[in-house]
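input
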Amino acid sequence: MQEVLIKSFTFVFIIIIGYILKKAKVLKKEDAHVLATIIMNITLPCALLTSANGIELSGLIIVLIIIGILSNIIMIFIGYFASLKESNQLKAAFMINTSGYNIGNFALAFIQSFFPGLGVVYLCSFDIGNALMGLGITYAMASHVASGENHFQVSDLFKKLFSSIPFDVYILIFIFAIFKIKIPDSILSIASTIGAGNSFLAMLMIGLLLELKISPTETKNVIKVLVLRIIGTIILSLLTYFILPIPILAKKIMIMAYCAPLSTVSAVFSKKIGYDGDMPAVANSLSIILGVICMTILLILFI
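output
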C-alpha cells in the first residue's frame, strides 16, 4: 500500500514541479513544445522499445492487441458523437482526449511493481493496440475531422501514421515479434538509458502546460472529457470482466489499463490539429489524479 502511494505521489509531484518552474519563470509554457518534440522523437520511442521488447505472439497476445485497438475506437466515437454540435477543431480534440491511455508513462510503473512478468506482457500487448491508435490512427482521424474535408484519402492516413516515430517503433516491435527477432543487448542498453527519462519529461511537460485558471467554456470541456472517459472506463471494464473469455489476470490488467490517464501525447496532438485551448493539459493533469486514485483502489482489491 505504501509503495503504491509513493509511486502515485511521484507522478503528481513532478507535475507540480513543472507548474512551479513555469510560475517562477524558470521555464515557459512554450518550453513544453520543446519537451514534446524530445518525448515524441527520442525518449518515448526508446521507452517503448525497451518495455515491449521480447513479446512473443500467441492467441491471447493477439486478442489483447485487438482489445487495445477496439477500446480506443469505442472511445473515439464516444468523443465524436458527444461533440457533434461543436467546431471541427473541438470535435477532433474530443476524439483525441477521450481516447488513448497513458500506459508507458503511468500504468506500466504500477504493473511492473505489483504484477511483474506475465502482467507486464499482458499490459504491453494491450499497449501495442493502444499505441497503434493513439500514436497514429487517432491523430489521422482527428486531423481529417479538424480539416473539415469531406473526402478521405487512405494515402493521407498512412502518411500521418508513419510520420509518427513512436508508431514506427511499435510496428518494428510487432515485426520482430512475428519473426522472433531479438534486439541486441547493446541497443537495448542505450534505449533503456534514454527511455528512463521519458516519464519525468512527460509529467514535467504536463506541468508546464497546466493552467489552473481557465475559461468557463474550457472548464465545461474538461469536465465533459473526464465524464466521458469515466463512463467509457466503466463500460469497458464490465464488458471485459463479465464477457471476455481471457484469464483472470489479463482481465485485471485490462481494467487497470482502462483507468490509466490520458495519453501523454494527447496535448501534443491537440495542438497539431489546431486546438489552442487549455482543455487537453488540464484534463490530462486531472486524469492523472483520478488515475492515481483508481489505480490505488484497484491494486488494493486485486493484490
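quick obs: Residues 16 and 207 are 6 Å apart (CA to CA).
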